[in-house]
Design a protein that fits this description.
Layout: E1 8-13, H1 20-30, E2 35-37, E3 40-41, E4 56-57, H2 60-68, E5 72-78, E6 81-86, H3 87-96, E7 99-103, H4 106-115, E8 120-125, H5 129-139, H6 144-157, E9 166-169, H7 173-188, H8 191-196
C-alpha cells in the first residue's frame, strides 16, 4: 500500500470581486478537514470582516518585521496595501498531509508556485468585465476611485490565467464551487502525487 500523499496547496486566484473568497468559504463549510491560509494585511478591516478569520490585520511595521524574519511564504503590495501568506500553516499542511486553500492574488500565486512547485493553481474568471464591475459595485465596500482602480488591475490580472493549472469561469457560484471541488479531489488522487508521498 501507499502512504497518503504530501499536503496539497491549492491557490485560488481571481480579480477583486471574482468570487475567490466566496468559493473558499463554501469549500471550507463542505470540507471541514480542509485548512485555510489566513493572509496577513496592512489594509483597514472592513465592517463585515473578523480579525483572525478573514485576515490578520497588522501595521506596516509589524508586516515588514515578519517578512524580514522569513515568516512569510510570499508577499506583495496590492491595491496600495501589503498582503502576505504566513509560512507556518503551509509547512504544517505539507507535514500533516492535508489540503490547504490559499485565497491570494496572481502575484502571490506565482510566488507560491516558485516556492512550492507541487502547488495547484486555480484561476477564477468572471464571465465578463461588465459582470465583474456589477459584482464590485454590489459589495458596497469601496468608493468610486477604488472600484475604478480595481477594475483597471483586474484587466491585467486576467492575463495571468494561462499560467495557472486550471481556469473556471464563475457564471453560477454553485457550479463554480463544484468545479473547484472536483479539481481538488482529482489532484489529491493524482498518481504523481501518490508516488511522491
Amino acid at each position: 500500500m501507499f502512504e497518503k500523499p504530501p499536503g496539497l496547496l491549492v491557490v485560488i486566484s481571481s480579480p477583486s470581486g471574482g468570487g475567490k473568497t466566496t468559493i473558499c468559504r463554501s469549500l471550507l463549510r463542505a470540507h471541514p478537514e480542509y485548512l485555510y491560509s489566513i493572509s496577513l494585511t496592512t489594509r483597514p478591516r472592513r465592517l463585515s470582516e473578523v480579525a483572525g478569520r478573514d485576515y490578520i490585520f497588522v501595521s506596516e511595521e509589524e508586516f515588514r518585521r515578519r517578512a524580514d524574519q522569513g515568516e512569510l511564504a510570499e508577499w506583495a503590495k496590492v491595491h496600495g496595501h501589503l498582503y502576505g501568506t504566513p509560512k507556518g500553516p503551509i509547512e504544517r499542511t505539507i507535514r500533516e498531509r492535508k489540503v490547504i486553500l490559499l485565497d491570494i492574488d496572481v502575484q502571490g500565486g506565482m510566488k507560491i508556485r516558485r516556492r512550492y512547485p507541487q502547488s495547484v493553481l486555480v484561476f477564477i474568471l468572471p464571465p465578463s468585465l461588465q459582470v465583474l464591475e456589477t459584482r464590485l459595485r454590489g459589495r458596497f465596500t469601496e468608493n468610486e476611485e477604488t472600484i475604478e482602480r480595481r477594475l483597471s488591475i483586474a484587466q491585467r490580472e486576467m492575463d495571468y490565467w494561462e499560467r495557472y493549472d486550471y481556469v473556471v469561469v464563475n457564471e453560477e457560484v454553485a457550479e463554480t464551487i463544484a468545479s473547484v471541488e472536483a479539481i481538488i479531489k482529482a489532484e489529491v488522487s493524482r498518481v504523481e502525487r501518490l508516488k511522491r508521498g
